């Protein structure tokens, strides 16, 4: 057989990859592969330790291991996991074999573990496409080595003040770390994240004006009240929640950028019409909340830039649902039992969920499971975030009872009392599994179980107990 000629470019790439793989890298790859095999043999996830081991042994391991040709990264305060899952599901549905850290860590060690799992023993990649969820603070440790073709940022808000300080602090980390060649997918309705890495190519998306839009922010937190250029007070054409909306400066002309991709929502018909230039397609809404509509639009915008046609994306979305660990609904004897993630230590995420609950029709009872994973091991975690969250939204006549569960139940009760909620509506238990016992069920149409990110499994147990209680009542 005659050997096919190797082009100069291919030869150069082979030489470059060979030079990357020094003895330290080979040793780190071998041991991390062995660690991954051993952890999986023991039934462990192997999403963090192998990568941590590799980076410890070879600090520039991420730069030396071969990466897929096309890399999509998703970062941001809220929605990045949901957006990643949507992108991954649609690509997989369209026949792409994708490398992803779906069930793994989103810091540098997690990305390293994912690349190790998708490589051969020589460090060559097995996949052509990768989708990585990236922790915002880890951007500076990842982007110098993993240079995304497309970099998505869902939004930037205050989050976990003890780790992330302020949204402007996180903004600078991401903006300074993004490679100049990365094509950015950004939310034009977020005046913070839309200005990331101004030198980069970008595609903006936004949601067209809605009847529910406001003229002024009603949330406790509003992180961009003044013009970042001349420091005059910004005027908003419309506000969705917090600083999400469309604003302009009456003094210097600074304003929200013009969108390349615009979505028109119809919650009555449960559809989203997405327009890009001359193209228009109607997609099914995966959820009836504005923040999840943004998640879906983010994924659609990225997938179009990736190269999928609107019809391909639509066909896949018709088969998708939000992961049940983040949202689920079941009707039992005419009562809806709904679990909804309300990310602890994150005032924006909780405020959006509280607002969503109060706007839902019917008489409601609410179970709160907001303790962070650190609280579950008797940590003295910072609790200042609850005074940035809009617990006032739960002070609503449609909510007849709020059951507060977890070791921090006294803190949440105090916050709800300060929000004006009647003490007669509040019931507490430190044991989350005891929360269903405190439900009333009289004249109740919906029961919301609002749970923290790391309490998804516990929330499902509470949901099962709620369902059993409903099924067992005599009325």
Features:
475 residues, alpha/beta, nine-stranded mixed sheet, six-stranded mixed sheet
SSE arrangement:
Blueprint: H1 8-20, H2 23-41, H3 49-57, H4 61-64, E1 70-75, H5 80-93, E2 98-100, H6 108-117, E3 129-133, H7 139-142, E4 150-153, H8 161-164, H9 167-177, E5 183-187, E6 202-207, E7 235-241, E8 244-248, E9 261-266, E10 271-276, E11 279-284, H10 290-306, H11 310-317, E12 327-332, E13 335-341, H12 347-359, E14 364-369, E15 399-405, H13 409-418, E16 426-429, E17 446-451, H14 456-472
Parallel strand pairs: 1-3, 1-4, 2-3, 4-5, 5-6, 6-9, 13-17, 14-15, 14-17, 15-16
Antiparallel strand pairs: 7-8, 9-10, 10-11, 12-13
Number of helices: 14
Name the average pLDDT.
Answer: 90
* Quantity of strands, as a count: 17
CA-to-CA gap between the ends?
Answer: 81 Å
As laid out across the biggest beta sheet, the strand order is 2-3-1-4-5-6-9-10-11
Overall 3D shape: globular
Largest sheet: 9 strands, mixed
Low-confidence stretches: 1-6, 10-15
- Helix-strand category: alpha/beta
| Estimated helix fraction | 25-40%
Estimate the strand proportion.
15-25%
Q: How large is the radius of gyration?
A: 24 Å
Describe the structure.
- By secondary structure, the protein is of the alpha/beta class.
- Helix content is 32%, strand content 20%.
- It has 14 helices and 17 strands.
- The protein has helices spanning 8-20, 23-41, 49-57, 61-64, 80-93, 108-117, 139-142, 161-164, 167-177, 290-306, 310-317, 347-359, 409-418, 456-472, and strands at residues 70-75, 98-100, 129-133, 150-153, 183-187, 202-207, 235-241, 244-248, 261-266, 271-276, 279-284, 327-332, 335-341, 364-369, 399-405, 426-429, 446-451.
- A nine-stranded mixed β-sheet has the order 2-3-1-4-5-6-9-10-11, sandwiched between helices. It has a six-stranded mixed β-sheet with strand order 12-13-17-14-15-16, with helices on both faces. It has a two-stranded antiparallel sheet with strand order 7-8.
- Helix 2 (23-41) packs antiparallel against helix 3, helix 3 crosses helix 6 (108-117) and helix 5 (80-93) crosses helix 10 (290-306).
- The termini are far apart.
- Mean pLDDT is 90; it is low at 1-6 and 10-15.
């Amino acid at each position: 057989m005659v050997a096919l000629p190797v082009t100069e470019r291919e030869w150069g790439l082979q030489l470059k990859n060979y030079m990357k793989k020094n003895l330290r890298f080979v040793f780190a790859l071998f041991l991390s592969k062995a660690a991954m095999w051993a952890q999986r043999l023991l039934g462990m996830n192997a999403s963090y330790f192998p990568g941590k081991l590799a980076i410890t042994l070879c600090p520039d391991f991420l730069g030396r291991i071969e990466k897929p040709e096309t890399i999509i990264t998703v970062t941001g305060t809220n929605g990045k996991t949901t957006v990643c899952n949507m992108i991954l599901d649609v690509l997989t549905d369209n026949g792409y074999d994708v490398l992803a850290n779906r069930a793994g860590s989103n810091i540098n060690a997690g990305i390293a573990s994912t690349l190790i799992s998708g490589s051969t023993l020589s460090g060559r990649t097995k996949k052509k496409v990768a989708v990585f969820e990236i922790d915002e603070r880890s951007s500076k440790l990842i982007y110098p080595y993993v240079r995304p073709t497309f970099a998505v940022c869902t939004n930037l808000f205050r989050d976990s003040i003890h780790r992330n300080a302020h949204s402007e602090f996180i903004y600078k980390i991401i903006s300074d770390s993004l490679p100049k060649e990365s094509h950015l997918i950004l939310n034009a309705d977020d005046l913070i994240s839309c200005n990331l890495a101004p030198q980069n190519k970008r595609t903006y998306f936004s949601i067209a004006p809605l009847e529910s839009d406001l003229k002024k922010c009603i949330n406790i937190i509003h992180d961009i009240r003044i013009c970042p250029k001349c420091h005059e007070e910004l005027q908003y054409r419309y506000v969705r929640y917090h600083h999400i909306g469309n604003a302009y400066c009456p003094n210097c002309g600074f304003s929200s950028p013009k969108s390349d991709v615009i979505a028109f929502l119809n919650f009555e018909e449960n559809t989203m019409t997405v327009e890009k230039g001359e193209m228009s397609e109607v997609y099914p809404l995966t959820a009836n909340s504005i923040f999840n509509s943004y998640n879906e639009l983010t994924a659609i915008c990225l997938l179009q830039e990736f190269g999928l046609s609107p019809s391909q994306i639509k066909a896949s979305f018709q088969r998708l649902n939000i992961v049940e660990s983040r949202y689920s609904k079941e009707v039992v004897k005419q009562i809806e039992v709904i679990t909804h993630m309300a990310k602890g230590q994150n005032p924006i995420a909780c405020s959006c969920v509280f607002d969503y609950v109060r706007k839902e029709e019917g008489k409601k009872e609410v179970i709160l499971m907001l303790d962070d994973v650190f609280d579950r091991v008797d940590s003295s975690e910072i609790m200042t975030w609850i005074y940035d969250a809009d617990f006032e939204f739960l002070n609503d006549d449609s909510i007849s009872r709020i059951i507060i569960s977890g070791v921090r139940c006294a803190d949440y009760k105090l916050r709800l009392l300060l929000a004006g909620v009647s003490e007669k509506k509040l019931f507490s238990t430190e044991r989350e599994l005891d929360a269903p016992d405190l439900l009333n069920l009289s004249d109740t149409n919906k029961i919301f179980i609002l749970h923290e990110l790391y309490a998804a499994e516990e929330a499902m147990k509470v949901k099962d107990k709620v369902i059993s209680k409903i099924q067992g009542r005599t009325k």
